[in-house]
Amino acid sequence: MNFFKRAWLNIWAKKGRSILLILVSSAILMFVLAGLLIRSAAVKATETAKNDAGATMTLSANRQAAFKKMSQSSSSSSSKTSRPKLTLTPVKLSDATKIAKLSNIKNYNVTSSTSANAKSYDTVSTTTGMGGNSGGPGGMKSSTSSGDTQIDGVTATSLTTTFSDSQSKITKGRGITASDKNTNNVVIEKELASQNNLTVGDTMTFKETSGDKATVKVKIVGIYKASSTSSASAGPMSTDPSNTIYASYTLANTIKGSKYAGTADSVTFNVTNPAKVSATKKAGNKLISSKYSLSTDDASYQSVKASMDNVEGFANKIVWLVAIAGTIILALIVILMIRERRFEIGVLLSLGEARWKIVAQFFTEMLMVIVVAIAIAGAGGKFVGNQLGSQLVSQSTTTQTTTSTTSGQPGGSGQPGGTKGGSGGPGNMQATSTKTKDPNLEIAVSAVDLAELGGFGLAITFLSIMIASGGILRLEPKKVLIS
Amino acid sequence: MLKTQDLGYWYQDKTQPLFQGINLTFEPGKSYAILGHSGTGKTTFLSLIAGLDKPKEGDILLGDRSLKQIGLTNYRRHDVAIVFQAYNLFTYMSPMNNLLTAMAITEAEHAGDRAYAKQILNDLGIGDDLIDRNVQHLSGGQQQRVAIARTMCCDAQLVVADEPTGNLDEDNTKAVIDQFQRIAHEQNKCVIIVTHEPDVAAQCDHQYRLENKQFTQLA
Known about the structure:
The structure holds two protein chains of two kinds. Chain A folds into two domains: 2-49 and 305-405 and 435-481, no CATH class; 55-77 and 86-297, no CATH class. Chain A has helices spanning 2-13, 15-52, 63-76, 93-100, 131-134, 161-164, 190-195, 229-233, 249-256, 277-285, 299-340, 342-350, 355-407, 447-468, 470-474, 477-481; strands at 55-61, 91-92, 105-118, 149-154, 168-173, 185-189, 203-208, 215-226, 244-248, 263-264, 266-271, 292-297. Chain A is built from 16 helices and twelve strands. Helices cover 35% and strands 23% of the residues of chain B. Chain B has a six-stranded mixed beta sheet, with helices on both faces. In chain B, strands 1, 2, 3, 5 and 6 form a five-stranded antiparallel beta sheet that branches. In chain B, strand 5 and strand 6 (65-66) form a beta hairpin. In chain B, helix 4 (95-105) packs across helix 5 (114-123), helix 5 crosses helix 6 (140-153) and helix 6 runs parallel beside helix 7. Chain B starts with a strand and ends with a strand. The interface between A and B is medium-sized, with 23 and 30 residues.
C-alpha cells in the first residue's frame, strides 16, 4: 500500500496546492451541507407544524341538505301563503362523542350560541355611522326577537380560536372549563364589567328571548378582554363584541329551550395529526347521518406544509446542483492535476506500478483533502445554512401569503351552522380565524448531517477521480518519458 | 539473458520501418552501448527492451520467456530498471523516499530498508545531508546519480538508460558511466545504454550502431 505514503508525501510537499484544493472542496461541501441542513430543518419544521399548526374538524348541521329539503317541500307544497322554512338539525352530542373516540382526535369543543336580553345590567352600546339605522343602543333588540346579549356556550374557552389565538384574554378570574358543565357560570367582557361595576363573584341576570322568557341568574367566574380588532369584524347589524358572554354550552342550551338539551350548534374537534385529517373526516362521516356535515380546517397546517415543501424542494435542488457542479469542478481540477503530473505517472508506470494503484493514490490524496474540507464545511455550513434558510423561508412565506390572499374568497372560510333564533343576531358574524404561525427553520449540524455530508464528499471525490482517471488509464509511459 | 528475435518496428507505414529483423543478445555482467544519429530509432529500440512499448513484429525474450508471456507491467516491475535523460525522479520526494518508493513498487528484496538505500546513495556520492532533501534542490548530476541509485536498489537484472549523460557535464558524465560499469561488472547486471556520444559508448563493453534500419556491432 505504498500509494498511501505517496499520497501523503505529495499532499505534504505541495502545501499550496493542497490548501487551494481544500478551500475549493470546502466551498463546495459548505453549500452541500447548507442544502442538507435546510432540507432536514424543513422536514423537522413540517413535523413540528403538524403539532403546532393544528387542524380542526367541525361537526354541524348539513346546510346543503337542509336547503335541498326546503326547496323540495316548497315545490310540493300546495299552499301559496306558507313560506318554506329552513330547518337545521342541531348536532347531537352523542354523535360528537362517537367521533371524539376516533384515534386522531385530541379533544373537542362544543359550541352552542344564543342570545338573551339584559336585565340586571346595561349592554355596551356601539357608536358607529350606522347608529341612525339601528335605532341607537341595543341595536337589533327592538326590531327582532334576538337579545342584546350574545351567549356563546362552549366546552372550554381555551379551546375556542378566539382565546387560543389570544384575540381575547382572561384578565380576571378564569375561563369556562369542562367543569362548568351544567352550571350558570359565565365569563364577561371587561368593558361590560366596568360599565356595570361587575367583578368576579358577582351575579347578573338576563331574560330569555323565547319561550316563557324566564329570567336566568348567572355567576361571573372570569372577565376577559376582547381585542379591539374584534369589533372590526362585526357587521353593522351586530351589537358591540363586549356584549358577548361565554358560558358552558349546557347553559346556552337551557336558554334556547328544553328540546336543545344534549345538542350543539357545532362541535369542533382538534386533530392530533393534521396530515391525516382527511382520513379522520372520512371515518367521522361514517358515524353521522346526512343531516350533519363534517368540515375540516387544516389551512394553517397546509400553509406551513406548503411553505416547508417549497423550502425542502429548493434545498434538495441546492444539494444536487452543488453536488453535480462540485463533482464537475473537482473532476476538472483533478484532470488538470493529472496532466501536470504525467511524468510522475509515467515513472510509476515504468517502475511497474499498477494503474489502479495510481488512481488509488490520487483518490487518497483527494480523500485527505475532503476530510479536512468536511471539517471546515461542518463549521461554516451552519452559518451558510442559517443565512440561506431564513432567506428561503421569508421568500416562501411571502409567496404562500400572496397565493392564499389571491385565492381566498370573501366569507369562504366561515364555519357552517348558525344558531337557532340567533341568526342575524348580535355577534353571529364571528369569523373563523386561521392560526398561521411563521415557519421557523432551526438549522443545527448533527452527526447524521455530517455523515451525509461525508457520503456526498466521498461520492464527489470518487466520481471526480473516476472521470479524471481516464487520462491515467490511457497514458502510455513511452510517450511521456521518452518522446 | 535478453534476446531479440526478428524484431521490427514502424510507426505508421510497415513499408518504412525504423528497424526490421533485429536479432541481438544481451548478456548479464556486461554493458552495451547503442549508438546512432537522431531519428534512427535507437530510443524506440530501448523502449521495446524496457517494456514501455510492444514490438510490431518479432519478439523479445527474457531467458526463454517472451515479454508477452511475462506481461509488460510485470516485466517492468521485476526485471528491468530504467534511467532517463531527464532523471524522472519523484519531484515531491527526497532521494531516500525515491529509493524506498521504487523498492516498494518493484517488491525488491530490501524494500523498506532505509539503511540499504542510504548505503547505495552514499556510495554514489549522495551524502547524508542530501538524502532527506527534496530532489529538486539537487544538481543535475546528483539527480542522475539518485536515478542510478534507484535502479541499483531494485532487483532488476536488466538496466536500460536513455541518454543518461545528455544533461551532464564531463565530470558527471564520467562518474555516471563508471557507475553503470560497476553495476554491470560488480552486480552482474546487464546494462544497455542508448547514447549519441561516441565517448560514452566507448566506455561500454560492447557497442552497436543503429544505421539504415540495422544494428552493426562496432566492438
